[in-house]
From TrEMBL:
Protein name, as recorded: MFS general substrate transporter
Molecular-function GO terms, alphabetical: basic amino acid transmembrane transporter activity
Segments passing through the bilayer: 41-69, 75-97, 109-128, 134-153, 165-185, 197-217, 280-299, 305-334, 355-378, 390-407, 414-433, 445-471, 555-573
Protein's UniProt keywords contain Transmembrane helix: yes
InterPro entries in alphabetical order: MFS, MFS_dom, MFS_trans_sf
Family note: Belongs to the major facilitator superfamily.
Subcellular location: Endomembrane system
One Gene Ontology cellular component: endomembrane system
Keywords noted in UniProt: Membrane, Transmembrane, Transmembrane helix, Transport
Pfam family, one: MFS_1
Length: 585
């Protein structure tokens, strides 16, 4: 057990980084749901759940349509960017939304995100090229990142930790409904009217969500973060951080035990409140986005467009390492309010919760985008048939998250549940390794149900573990940490799996397709369009199907390895108290 010579107090991993009793007046924190009527709570949460539902619906609409979109534009090699553009935008903007909502308020940011999301859907629905479609997905991702992260932060504002898991479970039920309807709706609309209508139909739904937020979302004033608390609360929190031996990056300034003299020159709280735009970590966000883009460009084009040993790929990897180092330096020493407070990652629970989200999200997104391609190429399913199997995600996500939330509400514990949920996810990815042309209907549905169950329970557990490890004034910032790692995981998951898929598919096609005058044409068509698999003569079709099966199989193997490491990270978390009141009592 670490010991602080400065304070003479033992610091346990079982306790939060800072003691709430030492940093805040408990009466300040008890401005909680007791001041919100049941009717108000229902209206507030409903407005949040609508945004979560639409964000999930948009995500699975794309997974069901990727094969058909790629075939129309003859752009199978660029298919990952239709998903990656959306996910990169989410990854880049989700962390900053936590800080922006502290500064400008939850409601204005939710309205902004709804309008941006609607604009992105409109661009996608009217696109006539893959480049415009990717642009629309980027715009949608900017909005969707806020719909999910701000909703999660807002729930933490008004719901105690002990009950938080249950409400998160209800939110994930809404997410599951959106995910299941999205896949099926996208398939039906694509088969009946064309894939563009799958995006256009979302625009009025998103605008309805924006109106609900404008007219009904009324949050009480709760000092849930350092930026919203009183000046006395801020100073008390600073004194608590100074007493703590763990190096902590607070949400408005960094204090180091090794350099206490710096505290005299730091800006005062009232000065920070006036200079709101100066508090936004634009520099950190810029280097985060640049690092992600460089990594994904290198991973997506390596081995397919450029050789792995080429100067282009080596330069991209080198630049990503440099910009990542600059990002860390900015967050540690320059940013007044870092977009990702990296010093908090020295805490065991926060670090391993973040790693679990990163690794398991990489694994999840590696599979969720390539199981539908397997169904289309190997099992010759229509978009509607694939979408109906995606509905299994609803049952998994709903049951997993809701059951996890109920368990934590009843017991106040999460550690063994977190390990169990990661194990269930691992078993689900293991089912994917058994997929083949003769797989039964039960196996086809299990390919979505088991990973969905484990993943939804895992993200619920790790979110509460992360929030429980810090005092209440840090919950918006720490929530942003999880969303940052989850966003990076989803982006890299799609990029890495796309690289594995494309490289394996190219290699296997040249190995398997028999010699003949149409050989090169068959290989070219198979690399451009998933649906072309079933257009070839039997001898070519068998070879192409075998190549697709090998490519998907390698993606699933990679996902399994990532899930194993995710399970290890989850098992390294520590148990913290899930309190029954907003004052952490």
């Amino acid at each position: 057990m670490p010991f602080s010579a400065k304070s003479g107090v033992s610091v346990s991993e079982q306790e939060p980084l800072l003691s709430s009793s030492s940093s805040l007046n408990e009466s300040d924190l008890d401005a909680s749901p007791t001041n919100i009527s049941r009717h108000q709570l229902i209206v507030i949460l409903s407005s949040l759940f609508i945004g979560i539902f639409l964000s999930a619906l948009d995500g699975t609409v794309v997974t069901a349509l990727l094969s058909h979109i790629a075939s129309e534009f003859n752009a199978l090699a660029q298919i990952s960017w239709i998903a990656t553009g959306y996910l990169v935008a989410c990854a880049a903007f989700q962390p900053i939304y936590g800080k922006l909502s502290d500064i400008f308020g939850r409601r204005p940011l939710l309205v902004f995100c709804n309008f941006v999301f609607a604009l992105g859907c409109l661009i996608c629905g009217t696109s006539n090229s893959v480049e415009i479609l990717i642009l629309g997905r980027v715009v949608s991702g900017i909005g969707a990142g806020g719909l999910t992260s701000i909703a999660t932060i807002t729930m933490s504002d008004i719901v105690p930790l002990r009950k938080r898991g249950l409400f998160q479970g209800i939110g994930n039920v809404c997410y599951g409904i959106g995910a299941s309807i999205g896949g099926y709706m996208g398939g039906v609309l694509s088969d009946s009217y064309g894939w563009r209508w799958a995006f256009l139909v979302q625009v009025p739904l998103v605008m309805t969500s924006a109106l609900v937020v404008i007219f009904f979302l009324r949050l009480p004033e709760i000092p849930n973060s350092l930026t919203e608390a009183s000046e006395e609360t801020l100073e008390a929190a600073v004194e608590a951080i100074e007493r703590d031996p763990i190096k902590v990056n607070s949400s408005y300034k960094s204090i180091y035990q090794s350099d206490p003299e710096r505290t005299d020159s730091l800006p005062k709280p009232h000065v920070i409140k006036k200079n709101t735009w100066a508090r936004i970590d634009f520099l950190g966000c810029f280097f985060l986005v640049v690092t992600l883009l460089e990594l994904m460009l290198a991973i997506s084009t390596g081995g397919s467009i450029f050789a792995w040993s080429s100067l282009t790929i080596l330069t991209l990897f080198s630049l990503s390492a440099i910009t990542c180092a600059i990002f860390v330096y900015v967050e540690l020493y320059i940013a007044r309010e870092p977009v990702i407070p990296v010093r908090l990652l020295t805490h065991r629970t926060i670090l391993n919760s973040s790693l679990a989200n990163w690794l398991i999200t990489m694994s999840y997104y590696s599979t969720v985008y390539y199981v539908p391609i397997f169904f289309t190429a190997i099992l010759d399913m229509s978009a509607t048939e694939t979408g109906s199997r995606l509905a299994g995600t609803f049952f998994g996500a709903s049951s997993g998250s809701f059951a996890a939330g109920y368990y934590m509400k009843r017991t106040g514990r999460y550690y063994y549940l977190g390990v169990a949920s990661s194990f269930v996810f691992l078993m689900g990815v293991g089912v994917l390794l058994t997929l083949k042309q003769s797989s039964s209907l039960v196996v086809q549905y299990l390919a979505f149900i088991l990973p969905g169950t484990g993943y939804s329970a895992m993200i619920t557990v790790t979110l509460l573990a992360l929030i429980a490890a810090v005092p209440i004034e840090f919950q918006a910032v720490t929530t942003s940490i999880q969303y940052a790692f989850r966003g990076i995981g989803s982006s890299l998951g799609v990029s890495v799996s796309a690289s594995v898929f494309q490289n394996t598919l190219t290699r296997e096609l040249y190995r398997n397709v028999p010699e003949g005058e149409n050989r090169l044409h068959v290989i070219k068509r198979a690399l451009e369009s998933v649906e072309s698999v079933h257009e070839f003569q039997k001898n070519y079709r068998i070879a192409v199907e075998a190549s697709y099966q090998s490519a998907c199989g390698n993606v699933f193997k990679m996902a399994f390895v990532l899930a194993v490491f995710g399970l290890i990270a989850t098992s390294l978390m520590k148990e913290h108290t899930l309190h029954c009141t907003m004052g952490r009592k």
